[in-house]
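Subject: mismatched residue count in predicted assembly?

I count 740 residues in my input, but I want to confirm that the predicted structure covers every chain. Input:
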Amino acid sequence: MFEYIWLVPLFPLIGFLLIAFNFRRFKGITSGVLASVMVLIPFLISLALFSNLVAGAPARTVELFSWISFDKLSIPFSFLVDRLSVLMLLIVTGVGFLIHVYSIGYMKEDAGFNRFFSYMNLFVFFMLLLVLGSNYLILFIGWEGVGLSSYLLIGFWFKNQEYNNAAKKAFIMNRIGDLGFLLALFLLVKTFGTLNFEEIFAQLSSVPIRTSTITIITLLLFAGAIGKSAQIPLFTWLPDAMAGPTPVSALIHAATMVTAGIYMIARSNLLFVMAPITMMTISVIGITTALMAGAIAIYQNDIKKILAYSTVSQLGFMFVALGSGAFTGAMFHLTTHAFFKALLFLAAGSVIHALHGEQDIRKMGGLKDKIPVTFWLFLIGTLAIAGIPPLSGFFSKDMILLGAFHVSPVLWVLSVIAALMTAIYMFRLLYVVFWGKAAVVENPKHPVHESPKSMTVPMGILAVLAVFGGLLGVPHLFGGEDRIQTFLGTNFSASESLLKHSAATSEGQTELWLMIIPLIIILGLIYLAWSRFVKNRSIAQDEPERSFVANLAYRKFYVDELYHEIIQKPVAGLSSFFHDVIEVRVVDRFVDQTGVFIVWIGRNIRYMQTGNVGAYLFYMVISIILILFFNLFNK
Amino acid sequence: MQNLQIIPLDYYIFFCSALFAIGVVGVLVKRNALVIFMSIELMLNSANLLLAAFSAYRNDPAGQIFVFFIMVVAAAEVAIGLALLVMIYRSTHTIDINVLNKLKW
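Triage response: the counts match. Full output below for your records.
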């Protein structure tokens, strides 16, 4: 079974090539169906692998061929099939398949239908490579590849220059992080002489290595994760990335690609636990991002932007878990987040589809009865992300909060505040969009309509997963088995035993209170949101008076403006200096003057060319005589 | 071979130099293309004579073989050159080189 692992990334690659080379020939929904099948087959293979692993098969490295080999360094092209990678495989192919099916309905009328699906399959291929790679280099190939597909898909509607700018922004911001990743790779090779996960982790326990080296390596790796997973200070690309079609936002910018940073750190958990400074940095950046993005999300008015900031906030949450050493919690939240955030994005896409491209929530309202299926699905997603038991978000969020509590109560309080923000912005969104009166005048030619089956069915499946996904990790407190902990235990047990506080299992009483206190506040906040946005309908139609903090959040803390001032402007100024002064006045002038000089010489000596044969003969004889004398006297 | 050496080598050299100079002056001062052509032949033959003379004095046949080569090249050159002159004459009805001054700045 394990030998056939190479089939998993192969199918999406074939799908990409087939569609890319036939994209003028495929008519109708052919390419969509083909692309979906090419993701479904890897999903089935992954399911088989998963059941094998659950049955107790050990993790295995499958070497396809020896790739780079010189001196002492050898990098095989091999795939690592263990519990962590199979979990990611299931998420990528499972959620990916559902979103592919959804896209068939969503993108049906788009002229770029075939192009869209070729990009989607390309993305899945690279994502699978990222997840499966058994060394950092293959992971890096996938890492860069998903960045490329993300760029292509954000700028999918390339006729809009703003969308192109968003795509470029995403690409460049990712490059900054990738530089860190690349430097980390070099340091890894220098320190360990290998890039294979297993060999590096084996050396960690046997060979003494300076903590400072590991701290630098992990910080650089984390820089890569910051770029890819949209954390402070590189998070501004993700909200702009919403320029892409909504299924893209669901698949790439919510469920899979942005979680690559989480996966990478969870994969390198042994490396990270050896560097306490890095762990603390991760926690601090994670919690800051979660709070900041949550605050921004509360004041946004674009349905996709709210979800985007929510994603940033949730990713921050996962980083808090990683920083606290709760790797299982991070992977668990990654899984449930993939379910409910994909669901929310798809439902938002369904709303946008129903309203023919409207994204401003101030123009929505009263959609509860007009598109009931979408409403119920959106409600499930909202409840799940807000952490209402027994939906999936509750359990995963609880696992993270518990992990944070073990590190420090302050971190716990801040995480709870971030969780409360989630409830506020999600219920604000829900109430404003689905309750109240319709603010937009309906166009009689295009009535508001429910989405087709190909869109609602995948959403339904995701909703089921969002509801029951949490049952993977019901804590022992509730008589659950905490199956995800057991499942991923082999991956994380070594590092968790290294952390001091992991031994301190809190008594049931504390754990229960830690769950109940936030829950009560969340319920209170939901009621507060109800009274504010449904009873009084205080969603501003125009620009209202805002308090200082609210204005700050509404303007996204002026981060974009800040970057514009301190980075973009100096760089642009420097560029224009190089252009106006160095290029135009020095380089261009030199080149121009050379030409002018040559032309001047030519203009003056062309009179030698008289056209008179006698003159030429004279020149010739004179020259020959001169050469003769030259040779005579130059002996 | 011995007969040639009765005359000292210096004579040959002076004679050939004079012949060559006459050729050069002819090329420079004449306007008729055919005469220029003949002057060039004169220069070639002065070189030939010198080669033959040296060959005889040094008992080295290589110089005479070289003369044959020059004759062949000269013959080929004459064939092409005369053909060119005929063509020029047909189009301009003259072979005065001062008339052929169209190719200039």
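The first strand of chain A starts at residue 60 and ends at 70. Marking this ticket as 'not a bug'.
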